[in-house]
Amino acid sequence: MVEVKGFKEGLEDVVAADSAICYIDGTKGILSYRGIDIHDLADHSTFEEVCFLLWEGRLPKPDELRSIRRSLGEERNLPAEMLRLLTSLVPHLTPMDALRTVVSALAETDPDVRDMSPAANRRKAIRLTGQIATIVAAHHRIRESRPVIDPDPSLGHAEDFLRMLNGTKPTAEAAKAFDVALVLHADHELNASTFAARVTAATLADMHSAITSAIATLKGPLHGGANEAVIRMLTDIGSLERVDDALHGKLARKEKIMGFGHRVYHTEDPRATHLRAMSKALAESSGETRWYDMSRRIEKIMNEEKKLNSNVDFYSASVYYMLGIPPDLFTPIFAVSRISGWAAHVLEQYANNRLIRPRAEYIGPDYPQPYVPIEKR
Ligand SMILES: CC(C)(COP(=O)(O)OP(=O)(O)OC[C@H]1O[C@@H](n2cnc3c(N)ncnc32)[C@H](O)[C@@H]1OP(=O)(O)O)[C@@H](O)C(=O)NCCC(=O)NCCS
After folding, report:
1. Is the CB of 95 within 6 Å of ligand 1?
2. Which of 53, 36, 54, 114 is nearest to 348 (CA)?
3. Side-chain-side CA neighbours of residue 66 (13 Å)
4. Contact 319, 272 (CB under 8 A)
5. In the prediction, which pLDDT does 359 show?
6. Which of 92, 145, 156, 264 holds its CA 20 to 30 A away from the CA of 254?
7. What was the pLDDT predicted at 5?
8. In sequence order, which residues have a C-beta less than 8 Å from that of residue 80 and are 6 or more positions away?
9. How many CA atoms lie within 13 A of 151 on its CB side?
């Protein structure tokens, strides 16, 4: 990492906000939401429970859990004009671009859009979390010329998303695996997209604007776009026998291997621990172990040669692939989960706001430079 004058590039190690949402110890490999360890949440919680935890700061009581599950289910309904917009976007935009565009447009259909009260912003958090799942599923159905499936509010968010995507109810194993993936991706402190959401919220722009910024930021391959890049790498390599040559070639060409490295973790990303186990379980239960075996081999080479660990995006790629999810939906699916964390951070920002406006170290031409009239240039 290049140290430039008084700061490190990429705001590395800069603390930019107080936050009570997510605690990470990058040296010990600890991640917690509101102090509860991610391993406990992955083993025992659900996405709905995690949403409540992130937004309210505590675990829900049984009636509160039933209520948030029901509200999320009802809010998965998408206004008819948004379905028409999705249809018009299908030939032109990728799923991630369509998601960003429709979330931006959703503002105009939201009854609370201009209400900045805490209660209205909580309603928007629930609504956007519900609607983002439906946008991703509906866009995929429309581009495949298949009918859009209406949400079923009686189902859990993970199960209903897979049903809206595929048109059939997922197996209990698939629904559970997807729910755990949503739990694992829900929040991660001041990652790039969450920081973008907070910067937008700190101008007192509305929640739809903040979430649109976050989706745009998630898209890049150094952030949420890495999971799609991982599966493209795996399918390009194609077989376990070809992994060593392919990986060594990429490393010799100084290519970055997607799904490895992390700004904060100096040990294993705790989310990768779960996703690796899920990838293995799905591989064994389906009898197709190729993607898991290849991933393990790539991980070994990266550990040995680059001393780099896998991050959340590495094994989520094979997990989603084995769940039958198309690769260009991997990053939008990240947003299906991360909206919960984004919304929690936007609520926290509004609750104790100050404009986020850093400075730049000026490295341009010396001041003052003469203004040269156009006819003399
Ligand atoms: C996550 C990431 C963006 C963090 O970036 P960062 O903190 O700015 O770290 P850098 O990109 O400066 O990397 C530091 C060194 O490790 C190397 N490195 C980091 N990640 C690497 C990777 N995935 N493959 C190969 N080398 C990698 C860099 O080349 C650099 O080496 P150098 O010092 O010899 O130039 C980076 O690790 C990366 O690009 N990973 C791949 C994309 C990815 O998986 N993103 C999802 C993150 S959850």
Report:
1. no
2. 54
3. 2
4. no
5. 94
6. 264
7. 63
8. none
9. 26
Euclidean distance between CA atoms 334 and 173, whole angstroms: 20
Q: Is 184 in the pocket of ligand 1 (CB under 6 A)?
A: no
CA dist 157 and 147 (Å) reads 20
Say if CB 341 and CB 21 are below 8 A apart: yes
Which stretches of the chain score pLDDT less than 70?
Answer: 1-5
Residue nearest to atom 33 of ligand 1 (CA): 1
Position 20 scores a pLDDT of 98
Q: Is the pTM of this model over 0.90?
A: yes
pLDDT at 92: 85
Closest-lying ligand 1 atom to the alpha carbon of residue 10:
8
Protein residue with its CA nearest to atom 39 in ligand 1: 222
Tokens 């776009």 label which residue? 225
pLDDT tens profile 233-260: 999 999 999 999 999 999 999 999 999 9
Active-site residues, by number, are 262, 313
Q: How far is CA 234 from CA 18, 72, 78, 229, 275, in A?
A: 39, 35, 35, 9, 16
194, 33 Cβ separation under 8 angstroms: no
Neighbours of 78 (CB within 10 A): 24
